[in-house]
Specification:
about 400 residues, four-stranded antiparallel β-sheet, Aspartate Aminotransferase, domain 1, alpha/beta, binds ligand C6P, about 15% strand, seven-stranded mixed β-sheet, 17 strands, about 40% helix
């Protein structure tokens, strides 16, 4: 059980008024709000611990370096990686995916194949497309069914001697599907193929253990787990990170530079060129500590209750169509009502203080599969309540009346 009043008190933004209504923030899959300890970590970082890391002999630089490296350890523990050297700080999921696509891509040859699912966010499609184009490789799509689920049998059929990597979302940002990534990884590994997990919509919502999953790579964003924007994580097994070439070049990622030859730094620094966002990393650690104190099992249970309640209430609305009906779902609902355009629905809900996301959610192939342009998406976080879902349901009823639907 989570103490919802206590949690909500940590998020001052939830008291904002929008057009005279109390804010009902249901756009957590896009970004989450920040609790006081995270904001305080950002402020205190700049007030008390601001010096470049890994560079200075002076006291302040050492303090900042210690905090930055302690944050790496916090991330390691949070996803249960074996080593801190397997934790690379990035700008977010998109950059993490691009790092793997670009560097793993260097190992590809003509005719090689990469498998991604049909429900992927563009961030897990386009980087692979670019690298496939460059290398003459092929991007193979693992299809979804009408429930928004993949088939492990189809995956087995798609894997062949040309397959080099499978990259898949742990949880879909449009359909709420939680993919059976452990099984995906096991099938891929039986064939000697590594797997990249897009954890943008899983790490913030339930316990993700990279060793238990045996994931080769995992990406997630700080801002979706109540941490700051502009910081994220790439986890990679040491054996893979060692094999991959550097992504960007510059300070920090080098060992010795001469005009004849440059040698590279050890992991994780090989992939962290330039001054890292050390205030971001330490404040991400504050967010992870905050989540750990609540307990990820409690987070999962709270959001499951919300999504079950929302699904039941929304399904009572005439003309409601919910997209995504997987057996295992995360904390969001994507829907359309009658023929009301999602943008119109979103605009009316906004006027009532309800923040939802509308559109294709950066997953156009998923929308194409269902033959729609976009959906309205309500996505839940640790501070949301059933009362807020009631407000959403009433808002939808108001919109229906307005459009005579
Ligand atoms: N999805 C959404 O509203 P970044 O932007 O790098 O933090 O995350 C990209 C990303 C990658 N994979 C998945 C599954 C995602 O959901 C996202 C971000 C947001 O659904 C913004 S488009």
């Amino acid at each position: 059980m989570i103490n919802i009043e206590k949690i909500r008190a940590d998020f001052p933004i939830l008291n904002e008024q929008v057009y005279g209504h109390k804010l009902v923030y249901l756009d957590n899959a896009a970004t989450t709000q920040k609790p006081k300890p995270v904001v305080e970590s950002i402020v205190n970082g700049y007030y008390h611990k601001n010096a470049n890391v890994h560079r200075g002999v002076h006291w302040l630089s050492q303090e900042a370096t210690e905090a930055h490296e302690a944050a790496r350890e916090t991330v390691r523990k949070f996803i249960n990686a074996e080593k801190t050297s397997e934790i690379i700080f990035t700008r977010g999921t998109t950059e993490s995916l691009n790092i793997v696509a670009a560097t793993f891509g260097e190992l590809l040859s003509e005719g090689d194949e990469i498998i991604v699912s049909q429900m992927e966010h563009h961030s897990n499609i386009v980087p692979w497309q670019l690298v496939c184009e460059k290398k003459g490789a092929r991007l193979v799509m693992l299809p979804i069914d009408n429930n928004g689920e993949i088939s492990l049998e189809t995956l087995k059929e798609l894997i062949n001697e040309k397959t080099r990597l499978v990259s898949i979302a742990h949880a879909s940002n449009t359909l709420a599907t939680v993919n059976p990534v452990k099984e995906v990884i096991s099938i891929a590994h039986e064939n000697g193929i590594p797997v990249m997990i897009d954890g943008a919509q899983s790490v913030p919502h339930f316990k993700v253990d990279v060793q238990e999953l045996d994931a080769d790579f995992l990406a997630f964003s700080g801002h979706k787990i109540y941490g700051p924007t502009g910081i994220g994580v790439l986890y990679g097994k040491e054996k893979w990170l060692d094999k991959l070439p550097p992504y960007q070049a510059g300070g920090e990622m080098i060992d010795k530079v001469t005009f004849e030859k440059t040698t590279f730094n050890v992991l994780p620094y090989k992939f962290e060129a330039g001054t890292p966002d050390f205030i971001g990393s330490t404040s991400l650690a504050a967010a992870l500590d905050y989540m750990t104190a609540i307990g990820m099992d409690n987070v999962e249970e709270h959001e499951r209750e919300l999504v079950e309640y929302a699904t039941k209430k929304l399904n009572e609305i005439e003309g409601m169509r919910i997209y995504g009906n997987a057996k295992k779902r995360s904390g969001l609902v994507s829907f359309l009502v009658s023929d009301i355009h999602p943008y119109d629905m979103g605009t009316i809900l906004d006027k009532l203080g309800i923040a939802v996301r509308t559109g294709h959610h950066c997953a156009q192939p998923t929308m194409d599969f269902f033959g729609i342009e976009g959906t309205v998406r309500a996505s839940f976080g640790i501070y949301n309540t059933k009362e807020e879902i009631d407000i959403l349901v009433n808002g939808i009823a108001r919109a229906k009346k307005l459009f005579h639907k």
